[in-house]
Amino acid sequence: xxxxxxxxxxxxxxxxxxxxxxxxxxxxxxxxxxxxxxxxxxxxxxxxxxxxxxxxxxxxxxxxxxxxxxxxxxxxxxxxxxxxxxxxxxxxxxxxxxxxxxxxxxxxxxxxxxxxxxxxxxxxxxxxxxxxxxxxxxxxxxxxxxxxxxxxxxxxxxxxxxxxxxxxxxxxxxxxxxxxxxxxxxxxxxxxxxxxxxxxxxxxxxxxxxxx
Length: 212
Ligand code: NAI
Known about the structure:
By secondary structure, this protein is an alpha/beta fold. The chain has helices at about 10-25, 35-40, 45-55, 65-75, 95-100, 105, 135-145, 155-165, 195-210, and strands at about 30, 65, 85-90, 110-115, 125, 130, 150, 170-175, 190.
């Protein structure tokens, strides 16, 4: 069925459902009720049902959901039934750490290229992917059907590089640079700021300490 307009909050919760369902699948569990899933994930059963109702409810019949079916449905909703080809711009500490992380590939995110403007890094390989100079990016994107770029460069150059990527046909950007990107409507941007999580943690820690 065609999903109706789904809130970003619901979309943001789907990967967590998928992780839990993946673990259940690996354990050989075939069915699970919303109550059991609720206990496991520490969210209310009504939240789970509401989330799933956005997509038609996934046919909970008799005793609970079919784990395999639910896993497949959520994977498809997240577009994980298709492979995505990625490039990473900035092959420093973070870029190399991401390039070394194999789990992206298991989810269908294939890292095809690494780019950096530091000549000392050109030719260095990370898991068989060699770091290329920036002037090869346009040609590489044309010939490799790249749809996602990961930005692990300083904020001073991220806006300019994002503009170039858009010109070269990028469709989505995972942005680690601490700056807001100015991209045309239709280009998807997801910002990742680990320091935001640390600040949230710091806030909660200081609240907890005051209560003691
Ligand atoms: P790094 O200095 O190790 O790597 C940055 C790389 O970008 C270097 O290899 C450099 O040569 C390259 N670079 C710089 N300007 C470029 C340009 N115009 N074109 C192509 N390549 C260029 O830094 P690190 O630790 O890997 O961090 C990368 C960026 O990510 C930093 O700006 C940092 O602030 C940010 N960061 C963000 C985090 C987050 O949670 N959002 C967490 C950690 C870092």
